[in-house]
Amino acid sequence: MARCLKVNWSGLSWLLSVLALSLVLLVSLRSSTVDQVSTTHAPLDPHTFHRFNVDCSAIYDMDPVEAGRALVQKKQLMEEELDEGLTNFTSNCDVFLKSRGYNDVCVTQQEKHFPLAYSLVVHKDAWMVERLIKALYTPNNIFCIHYDEKSSEKFRSAMESLAQCLPNVMIASKRETVFYATITRLKADLHCMSDLLKSEVKWKYIINLCGQDFPLRTNIELVIELSNLKGGNMLETCKPTASKSQRFKYHHEIQDSNDEFIKTAIRTGPEKKPPPHDIEMFTGSAYFVLSREFVEYMQSSDVVNDFLAWSEDTYSPDEHFWATIVRLPGVPGEVPRSQPDITDLMSKTRLVKWSYLEGSLYPPCTGDHRHSVCVYGMGELRWLLNYGHWFANKFDPKIDPVIIHCLEENLQKKQKLTLKMFVSRHVALKQRLSS
């Protein structure tokens, strides 16, 4: 059973206070020369992401006045971040790397000996993808970008250009035209997995993300957490409900759809044969944290390959594939079938706020909703940082760029504190050895 979060009804009253105060601030701040922000939009550059003159500590403390100031700035400064801007910026790699601070990333010995791999399945918002990579970046980590083949030409160009500037970022050698709830989404990650296993980097764990995810922990924090797994995996895996069982009980075909996804998996009627090898089905999420040993085993297993082929005509196979094979007897980091459900709130991989659980499991969304998922607003900052997950979804700079700015600032501060602590320890040890 998922751990329940006490409903923070004070957060709702805080939001109402923000809305009221923002009306006053809209008038007072416009007439004031103090803390006034210029509305002249320069071409997008690395400093654009840090243009908000906000106190993130005050926003974390739910200070309504600071939140009101942030609302005013957001209204004045929001602009569309064009994909071609990243292509132009990365046309000079030296300038890009220096300006964005990629050359200044320092890592501990523990991080050097524990490289991580990332599979990024993306299709839009090139600058958000770059910010995600920058937040996770160390020279010893490795990244695979799978861009949707039906993405815009400008987005694809931006991803190719970004990969050319970063030696440990690759574009998936094989790419899918991804359609919602079909096998194509699962195959996108599998393509990156295959490429990452072939790389020279002997990564310890692989984490898959999408373009609207963002980390809540620094790299050293992730390394410590993953080291403590001792080869185990971290993902959602639950007994299927009756409704979710319909997803793999019947044959589905990719057909045209009336919704925005254009094509999706549609149930056609015939009931499927049971899964091969008497596999017991579990359901979960498309997102995971998996050990290298698990991935190597999975790619060489006939049982897994047969199960993948069986899943081709199911609905949203990525939401039962990983959850099921991690329960197979004998797989590295196995979750025994007898073990109780591991829900999305129990797994630390990815924190998502579903609209239909707001007010019961967690406080109301302060941003916006998309497909029943909260696109976070700045009012979620405290909740996101304190809940204990490693990543969160969804973020969108067109909805609330301030929350992303504050998360970036939080990561940067923690990274500086970590480096300072390790330097102090090194100096102290050196002094003791020389005395």
TrEMBL record:
Pathway: Protein modification; protein glycosylation. GO terms for cellular component: Golgi membrane. The keyword Glycosyltransferase applies. InterPro entries: Glyco_trans_14 (IPR003406). This is Uncharacterized protein. Keywords: Glycoprotein, Glycosyltransferase, Membrane, Signal, Signal-anchor, Transferase, Transmembrane, Transmembrane helix. One of its GO terms (molecular function) is acetylglucosaminyltransferase activity. It is a single-pass type II membrane protein. Residues 1-20 form the signal peptide. The keyword RNA-binding does not apply. It comes from the Eukaryota. Belongs to the glycosyltransferase 14 family. Its main location: Golgi.
